[in-house]
Each structure stands twice: as C-alpha cells, then as structure tokens.
Design a protein that fits this description.
Layout: E1 10-14, H1 19-30, E2 34-39, H2 42-52, E3 59-63, H3 69-83, E4 88-91, H4 113-141, E5 144-149, H5 153-156, H6 162-182, E6 187-194, H7 207-215, H8 225-234, E7 246-249
Helix pairs in contact: 1-2, 1-8, 3-4, 4-6
Length: 256
Amino acid sequence: MMKVDHHGRVAIVTGAGKGIGKATALLLAKSGAKMVLVGRSAQSINETKAEIEKITPDVIAIEADVADWQAVKAMAEKAMDRFGRIDILVNNAGIDKQDKTREDQFTIDEIDDADYDRIINVNMKGHFNCVKAVAPYMKKQKYGRIVNVSSTTGLDGRIATAPYCASKAGIMAQTKNFARELGPYNICVNCVAPGFTLTTMQDHRTQEHIDMIASMMALRRVAKPEDVAHAILFFTTEELFATGQVLVVDGGGTMH
C-alpha cells in the first residue's frame, strides 16, 4: 500500500457495500480519512461500516440511490452536517443487466427501454448527481479530489450491453468536462477504467470462464477489487497534479 495521509480529510464512496467500492472505502479509512459510505442496500453499507469502525469511529452509512437527485443532495448535506467538509468523492456506484446468464437480454432487438434508461440513470447521471452535490462545498474550500469509476467496456465495447458500454463511455467524457469546470478551484477529477474484476457482478461465471479470461491478460490473472482500489487511492492524493485523465486498470487485457 502506498503511503497516503488523509487525516483530516472526508471521503464519500458510493457503491461502498461491496466490491471495488468496499475495497476503496477500507483503503481510504486506513489512510486516515473520515468516511461517508453510500449505497442502495442498507445491509451492505452497514456491513462495510462495521469493518471500518475497527479502523476509525469517524464513519457514517447513508442509504441512497444515486439516480435520485434529491437523495444525493440530502446525502451531501448529511456528510457536511457530520464532518463539516467534503474532500474526496469516489463515484463507484453502478449497475449492469440483471440476468447476466441471458446473452440476448440486451441485444439491439431484445433490450427493454426501462432497463436501458435505468442503467444510464444510475451509471452516468448518478455520477453527475454526486459531482453536482459535492462541487459547491469543494469549490468553497478550494480543494477536492473526485474519482469516477468507469470500465474498459467504455473503450472497446462488449456484445449485448449497449447501455452499460454507453454509460461507461459517458463517464469518461463527463470526467473531462468536470475537470475543466472545476480545475480553477483546485479540484482534480479523474477516471479509473477497470477491466474484468472479481466482484459480485461476476458471480454467474464459472471458474473455467474466469481462467480463460485470465489467460488473455498480459499479467495472466484477473483483477481483485483491491487492485482497482489502489489506483483510485492514487487519484485522491493531495500531491496530485493530474486531472481529466482516464487510467485503465486491466492487467493488460485491452492489449489482447
């Protein structure tokens, strides 16, 4: 783990109940940050909260759907009420198609309008909502670090997942917009694009399938959530002089 000192800083992590979000929240807490955990599942984020309480008492869990602007606005207000500032936002919350065993579910012919809209609203608009909610506080304090979690599918596409790929590409584009608008206020906005990562989104896959994917990686293994979390942690550092960037974290998978 790189030496990062976030004592006195306050970090919000969305989608903090599991996977990349949980791994990132734990890393930030270990670096000294006061934590705001956000997620749709109260049970999941409270489980993460219980783990973080072993590291620091400065942690709160907020149940919220990032696609709901009023809920996100209230979340930021609760963070300010508790800690008095917001220094770091990790926009990690995201969804994919519900039944991943059905390859035809999101083909052009089969996709349902409601599913398409829901994925765009959570993955892309949800990121926008969170940035919109925290930006006024970061601008006032002339400091902020925002990290948006996208995916390599936003770069190279994937069959039968049009809305997911579109949302992840949109996150990359929004990152550059946010970076330009917020840069004058000493707010850095960057993006991490993970490749295949062993999270609950992959629970439907067989070990044989996972091994096949790993064989296509330059590093010959698939990512763990912690691999992505360390990349995110880099973009939260005070010394950072990078903004509007997209860092691919895929073990060399996109070179295949």
